[in-house]
Write a structure and sequence with these properties.
This protein is of the alpha/beta class. The longest helix is centred in the last third of the chain and has 21 residues.
């Protein structure tokens, strides 16, 4: 029974792996459409088009583009995806400056801005695109059996996850990365408001999601990533106690 529950939702998640991370197609229950969760950095458009074709869908059946946050490795193909699918972009309004490449990075976070400027110049990605529907914490979205917006600031001010109560799955964006060799928080140079991260970690834990899917991982296994997330929090708690 446990495996059946996991397989039910995982069969409706299409992983699209790019150079820096993962974006996803969330397939509707009746397979009449899908939503795109993040758009990746470079190479993803070819894979997105292929995945949509293999599902027997047309670009216009991509219902929405959901953005966890506006960093270039998640929004690099945003303008392309919107032009290709005609789907509206849903994101927290604080991410518009990141999408536009105008966010005022400061302190050690300036390195994130430098990397993004280099990426835009060298890779030719990151054309500006307007957020069509601004998101706020607790908003309920109709796709995939229902998705609740979970505001998880820290990595960026408008960083959001998406929670499916029906499937017990939290898509956690860049709250943490989960690889067999290294489960970790985003590096300090990438975090615009690091002081907010501890509260966001706790908020994600309190949701009680049975499965967690980050946007940087090795295999699509929500139970595994949930266990790794708890181990990461336990490690942080031990470090605080020891300090």
């Amino acid at each position: 029974m446990e495996g059946d529950v996991a397989d039910a939702w995982q069969a409706r998640v299409q992983t699209i792996r790019g150079a820096m991370g993962v974006c996803h197609l969330l397939i509707e229950p009746d397979r009449s459409g899908a939503v795109l969760l993040d758009t990746g950095l470079v190479g993803e458009p070819w894979f997105i088009r292929r995945a949509v074709r293999k599902l027997g869908l047309q670009p216009g059946q991509v219902r929405a583009i959901l953005l966890t946050h506006g960093h270039l490795d998640h929004a690099g193909n945003l303008a392309w995806a919107k032009a290709w699918s005609r789907a509206p972009i849903y994101a927290h309004p604080a991410e518009q400056a990141h999408i536009d490449g105008t966010y005022p990075y400061c302190g050690v976070n300036r390195w994130c801005g430098r990397l993004e400027r280099a990426g835009r110049t060298l890779l030719g990605v990151g054309a500006a695109a307007k957020i069509d529907v601004p998101l706020a914490d607790g908003d309920e979205l109709p796709w995939w059996g229902g998705l609740r917006v979970v505001h998880l600031p820290g990595h960026t001010l408008g960083h959001c996850g998406f929670y499916s109560a029906r499937h017990g799955v939290l898509f956690s964006g860049d709250l943490f990365a989960s690889y067999f060799f290294n489960v970790h928080l985003p590096p300090p140079i990438l975090n615009s408001a690091p002081e907010l991260i501890p509260a966001s970690l706790q908020k994600a834990r309190e949701i009680g999601a049975r499965f967690i899917v980050p946007q940087h991982y090795d295999v699509l296994d929500g139970a595994l990533h949930r266990c790794r997330f708890e181990a990461l929090l336990a490690r942080r708690e031990r470090a605080r106690s020891a300090g």
